[in-house]
Amino acid sequence: MEYRELSNGVRMPVIGYGVFQIPPERTERCVRDALEVGYRLIDTAQAYGNEPGVGKAIRESGIDRGEVFVTSKVWVSNMNYERAKASIDASLETMGLDHIDLMLLHQAYGDYHGAWRALEEAYHDGKLRAIGVSNFYPARLMDMCAFAEIPPMVNQVETHVFCESGCVRFHVG
Q1: Residue 121 belongs to a domain with what CATH number?
Q2: Mean pLDDT over residues 141-153, rounded?
Q3: Residue 49: DSSP 8-state
Q4: What is the pLDDT of residues 11-56, one digit of tens each?
Q5: For 17, phi and psi rounded to 5 degrees?
Q6: Of 48, 81, 109, 112, which one is the catalytic site residue?
């Protein structure tokens, strides 16, 4: 497996298995299968509704938790300090994990600055090993970097062969 080192020294696999649009009742099996064939990065989000299956598959996989990199995302309805803070704890509880390797703000809506403060706090508390953003356009990303105590370590953006010209690739730094 190839890895990239984030700005805080955390190593992140360059290829992962995303569970977007996998029904909750199939998520556990799909993640278990992904882990069995060698995936070590699992990407989920609060909005996908399948964090429980992700967590259960990881906990029951027999693979050391330190070897599985879990990414989740705070949904736009939680974009302020209080709701983001509660949603981070809810994701940890829902997945049954003691930490999330990378937590992202899903999109730049609402009070994303307040939500970012919640990510920074959870990072300092050891609940999150790395923090970043998802689907942030350059102006919002620059705004976030200027505001943040801890600059985003990742900007995850969609890319695939059917993606229109606005898509770029997954950036780590």
Answers
A1: 3.20.20.100
A2: 94
A3: T
A4: 999 999 999 999 999 999 999 999 999 999 999 999 999 999 999 9
A5: -110, 120
A6: 48
